Amino acid sequence: MRFLADEGYRIRLEVPNMGQSADLVASRSRWLTFVEAKRHDWRRALRQCRAHEAVADYICVAISLRSVSNALLQEAKDVGYGLIRYDLASQTCEWMLQPSRNTKVWLPQRRRLMAAMKVIDYAD
């Protein structure tokens, strides 16, 4: 979380979105970045990310693995998702893949999300 805050993002945790919740939503200016975090099950994270395509400008998977497989890198790249690797030993994060801007945002759903987010506190 500090990783994104240090890049100028404001962070909210467990943000409800269309019957699910995003592990983390980072906002900077008018842009929203949704992040699904997993210790190892990256395929599940990719499935969860699909639900955020209607509202997120950028979508990322954060994964806690020693190394990132080529399969994960390729699948994330194919759909335009970013990839953040968390190193448990050093407790640091690094960008493995920057996300592409999502062009599938559905404005009515985005407005509903923005209204709902007003009552969610930012994480410290």
Overview of this protein structure:
By secondary structure, the protein is of the alpha/beta class. It is built from 4 helices and 6 strands. The protein has one domain (2-107): 3-Layer(aba) Sandwich (Trna Endonuclease, Chain: A, domain 1), CATH 3.40.1350.10. Helix content is 27%, strand content 35%. A 6-stranded mixed β-sheet has the order 1-2-3-4-5-6. A hairpin with a 2-residue loop joins strand 2 and strand 3 (31-38). The chain starts with a helix and ends in a 7-residue tail after the last helix. 27% of the residues are buried. The model has no long low-confidence stretch (mean pLDDT 92).
Q: Could you name the CATH topology?
A: Trna Endonuclease, Chain: A, domain 1
**Helix amount:** 25-40%
- Given as residue ranges, the uncertain stretches (5+ residues, pLDDT < 50) are none
Strand order of the largest sheet: 1-2-3-4-5-6
Contiguous helical run count: 4
| Average pLDDT figure | 92
Helix and strand sequence: HEEEHEHEEH
Class per helix and strand makeup: alpha/beta
CATH top level is Alpha Beta
Rg value = 14 Å
CATH architecture level-2 label: 3-Layer(aba) Sandwich
Q: Report the span from N to C terminus.
A: 9 Å
The tally of beta strands, per DSSP, is 6
- Number of separate structural domains: 1
- Major sheet: size, sense and barrel closure? 6 strands, mixed
* Share of residues in strands: 25-35%
Instruction: Give the CA-based shape.
Output: globular
